[in-house]
Design brief:
Rossmann fold, six-stranded parallel β-sheet, two-stranded antiparallel ribbon, globular
């Protein structure tokens, strides 16, 4: 099968999953797909003016071409809105700037960019009560078709509720021309769905958060296929980039279906969000989202490998034993205040941690559930995860970070980040599993000692 046939197959597979009421109604993916932008607008926004939203790099990559293509059709095209910052971040103040601009016209926003541009446009358009579409410029993250925008507000990285785009266009020629490290970051973001899937399977088995079968399937059914050619991603191979792009788009659709980031995000992403909240930079720049998630994915997988070596039948599930090892809430709260000196940030972290802190009786019940269903839970984890050494090599083959020092995180900080990442989200992950079971020393700390994975 030639590449054009494979592209058509991929596009058809994506468009076949949409349901009644889905926000996204059209996805165009393939070589030369920029030419389909007018088709999307004619179908969804007939006769309406449009405005391209981009930064300087993405305007050069595809924004100028989109403007020219649209003007050639006779459609009214406003002068583009181009962010001029050298390093643009998805901060709420940038959302407000774009929102003020959009409030002054009635144009349909066409976001041309990747993660940051898409999230800024997504939220600003929503706050103007206006749908939008996106033209991707790199296969760098899974948010193109996702429900919600990842925005930093008041120093706190959060997913703010807002609808996905009504149309997405991914031109593989543009993707192939993107900086290779951006597509490598996208590969890392996609392969993170492996440990994230394990987190959801465990949360479901313990009665914490039920799996949305359709959304889970959108992400997991073809995941191993999408991540099977990491070296092809690094080399810019057309079929590898197509698989990567399809996987990222389908992941976003999974989030859209579930109205939650759970299909795409587990402990792996919490490491990334933590480092964002800490304002982490390396060599003068903020590491890309996928680069941070790469390290978080390895960390999650290492913990799961240690979990597989444990025997839940040895758990002490009585309330007296739990009180002996599990810190009281007052201790947890003090630890949060010690780790997050900014008062407003600490307040939000306290809220997240408090939401998932169980009283002793409830924790005893959960641990009994773990003990009773251990064989089935263990089997699900074992089938889901990729061995840590293999995962690290796949990331390396894609050109993504596979050692924490590559993003400026030393081993001491990575160890501390495990506890901090657990604090910042109410979502149940492997971090909570090992803490609640009393396995923290074995599954986390021992990995940093002589002979351990992170030693």
């Amino acid at each position: 099968m030639d590449i054009s046939s494979i592209e058509k197959q991929s596009e058809d597979r994506i468009n076949s999953v949409f349901w009644d009421g889905a926000t996204t109604q059209m996805v165009k993916i393939g070589s030369g797909a920029l030419s389909s932008v007018p088709e999307c607008l004619d179908r969804l926004f007939p006769g309406q003016p449009v405005v391209v939203v981009a930064d300087r790099n993405t305007y050069a990559a595809a924004g100028r071409a989109v403007c020219e293509i649209l003007r050639a059709t006779g459609r009214e095209v406003l002068d583009p809105f181009v962010f001029e910052e050298d390093e643009l971040h998805a901060d709420y103040d940038q959302v407000e700037i774009l929102q003020r601009f959009l409030s002054g016209n009635q144009a349909v926003p066409v976001a041309v960019g990747s993660g940051t541009i898409n999230d800024l446009t997504k939220l600003a358009a929503h706050q103007c009560d206006r749908p939008y579409m996106v033209v991707g410029t790199a296969a760098s993250m899974d948010g193109y078709t996702a429900f919600g925008a990842a925005i930093t507000r008041g120093g706190y990285k959060q997913t703010i509720s807002c609808p996905a785009p009504v149309a997405v266009v991914i031109d593989l020629n543009v993707i192939a021309d993107a900086p290779s490290n951006m597509n490598a970051a996208g590969y890392a973001d996609l392969i993170a769905k492996v440990p994230a899937g394990a987190d959801w399977l465990v949360a479901d088995a313990l009665g914490v958060e039920a799996i949305h079968a359709e959304a889970f399937g959108f992400v997991q059914t073809h995941l191993r296929e999408w991540v099977s050619n990491p070296s092809g991603v690094r080399k810019g191979d057309a079929s590898a980039l197509l698989g990567l792009s399809e996987g990222l788009i389908m992941t976003g659709i999974g989030m859209q279906r579930a109205q939650s980031s759970r299909p795409a995000s587990g402990a792996d992403h919490q490491f990334s969000h933590l480092w964002d909240m800490q304002g982490h930079t390396y060599e003068g720049a903020t590491p890309m989202h996928g680069c941070k998630v790469a390290i978080g994915s390895i960390a999650s997988t290492v913990m799961y490998e240690q979990v597989l070596a444990m025997n839940a039948r040895d758990l002490k599930t009585d309330e007296t034993s739990i009180r002996a090892y599990r810190p009281a809430w007052e201790q947890v709260e003090q630890s949060i205040l010690d780790n997050f000196p900014d008062a407003s940030l600490a307040e939000q972290v306290v809220t997240q941690s408090r939401d998932k802190y169980l009283d002793v009786a409830a924790l005893s019940e959960r641990l009994q559930c773990l003990e009773k269903n251990w064989d089935a839970i263990r089997s699900k984890i074992e089938k889901q995860i990729i061995p840590s050494g293999e995962l690290r090599q796949m990331l390396a083959d894609a050109g993504a970070p596979h050692e924490p020092e590559e993003i400026g995180i030393d081993r001491k900080r990575l160890l501390a980040s495990h506890a901090q990442a657990k604090m910042i989200r109410a979502r149940y992950t492997v971090l909570d599993l090992v803490a609640e079971a009393g396995w923290w020393t074995t599954c986390v700390e021992d990995s940093f000692k002589a002979g351990g994975f992170w030693a």
